[in-house]
Amino acid sequence: MSPTQHENGALHSGGSLSAANDGSRPLLVRRLPGLRDYLPTLEGMREFTDLRGPDTPDELWLLEHPPVFTLGQAGREEHLLDPGPIPVIKVDRGGQVTYHGPGQLVVYILLDLRRAGLGVKRLVGLLEQAVIDLLATLEVAAERRADAPGVYVAGAKVASLGLRIRNGCSYHGLALNVSLDLDPFGRINPCGYPGLAVTRVSDLVPDVSMPEIEAGLVRLLAASLGMTATPRAV
């Protein structure tokens, strides 16, 4: 299952893993405090995407959610094995089922792909590579898989991706397991793959901190997009 759900047709993809921007365009970065409920955040992304114009700056939203399972638009409910008390929300991204919870860094990518000169596959590649490069700075070898989008360490998934493209603009994004409780992944087939192992950065680099991960990932994402990360107040 592709991690991307499209509207209004597919965008052209291809080329190297770098964007065409020259670094002069700002990438506004919002760090949303606390644990952000999933549905209001989703509605906020949709509203931002629907109301943005050709000159609206692109944004990254960094946050953590309370425990929740999300099921992609074409997701199959048989991959929900035993959700128990954790709520399940059907969403409009591509992909199957995943888990979000405290200790997982969620990065929502609100990007005008046409203006950035990016296709969907290229954007997915940039997001995966940014995580791979981040982990490399921590001396952790990670890789992507052609058959299962995301980032993996020794076969275990450490980051998931899922995007929605509407009117040439993206929302949703990536989720990196930093220090979250991994037990809820046992209640699902993660990303639709029975028995898929998952891991977290804190098991690979015990002294890692969330601020360190956030700062490194923002720096790498902005560089890969050819943009300048600019903090923005919430």
Task: Describe the protein in words.
- The protein is an alpha/beta fold and 234 residues long.
- It contains five helices and eleven strands, in the order ββαβββββααβββααβ.
- It has helices at residues 38-51, 113-116, 120-137, 201-204, 210-225; strands at residues 4-6, 26-35, 58-64, 68-71, 88-90, 97-100, 104-112, 151-153, 156-166, 169-177, 228-231.
- Strands 1, 2, 3, 7, 8, 9, 10 and 11 form an eight-stranded mixed sheet that branches. Strands 5-4-6 form a three-stranded mixed sheet, with no helix packed on it.
- β2 (26-35), α1 (38-51) and β3 form a beta-alpha-beta unit.
- α3 (120-137) crosses α5.
- 42% of the residues are buried.
- The model is unreliable at 8-17 (pLDDT under 50).
Key terms:
234 residues, alpha/beta, BirA Bifunctional Protein, domain 2, 8-stranded mixed β-sheet, 3-stranded mixed β-sheet, 5 helices, 11 strands, globular
> How far is the first residue's CA from the last residue's CA?
34 Å
Binned strand content? 25-35%
CATH superfamily: Bira Bifunctional Protein, Domain 2
Residue ranges: pLDDT <50 for 5 or more in a row? Answer: 8-17
The first-level CATH class name: Alpha Beta
**CA-atom Rg in angstroms:** 16 Å
Looking at the overall shape, the CATH architecture is: 2-Layer Sandwich
Order of helices and strands: EEHEEEEEHHEEEHHE
* Biggest sheet layout: 8 strands, mixed
Structural class of the helices, strands and pairings? alpha/beta
Q: What is the CATH fold-level name?
A: BirA Bifunctional Protein, domain 2
The backbone outline, from C-alpha atoms, is: globular
Percent of residues in helices comes to 10-25%
Strand elements, count: 11
- Tell me, rounded to a whole number, the average pLDDT: 91
| Structural domain count | 1
Task: Specify the number of helices.
Answer: 5
